[in-house]
């Protein structure tokens, strides 16, 4: 389950000592990364083997300087190897992941309304 939030909600949650409840492993990883805890971020990203967590895993290894490992995880995520500054990539991944959660919730709600 993913907590439904906007990018700003997610970003503003960084003032709290713990991540919001209901974050996916991918978003929890990004939350811990923004808090400066690479180890916790990496552990969270490893909790899921899907494309979202693999993308975060790739970002974390690129940030760590392990380009070969990062390239592997970008392939697993179906994403091109990123060349953007770290902050830009972090913002892009968060935006994509929170946007996907909102779209999925909206689609589920619309499907429930269909006859």
Low-pLDDT runs: none
State the separation between the terminal residues, measured CA to CA: 26 Å
Portion of residues in beta strands equals: under 5%
Strand count, sense and closure of the main sheet? Answer: none
Order of helices and strands: HHHHHH
Query: What is the structural class?
Result: mainly alpha
**What Rg is obtained from the alpha carbons, in whole angstroms?**
14 Å
Question: Can you describe what's shown?
Answer:
This protein is an all-alpha fold. The chain has a domain at 25-97. 67% of the residues lie in helices and 0% in strands. The protein is built from six helices and no strands. The longest helix has 28 residues, at 86-113. The protein is globular, with a radius of gyration of 14 Å. The two termini are 26 Å apart.
């Amino acid at each position: 389950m993913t907590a439904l939030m906007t990018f700003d909600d997610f970003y503003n949650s960084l003032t709290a000592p713990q991540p919001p409840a209901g974050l996916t492993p991918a978003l929890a990883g990004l939350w811990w990364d923004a808090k400066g805890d690479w180890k916790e971020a990496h552990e969270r990203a490893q909790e899921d083997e899907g494309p979202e967590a693999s993308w975060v895993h790739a970002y974390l290894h690129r940030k760590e300087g392990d380009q070969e490992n990062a390239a592997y995880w970008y392939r697993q995520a179906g994403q091109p190897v990123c060349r953007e500054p770290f902050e830009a990539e972090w913002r892009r991944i968060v935006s994509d992941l929170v946007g996907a959660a909102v779209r999925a919730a909206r689609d589920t709600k619309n499907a429930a309304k269909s006859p």
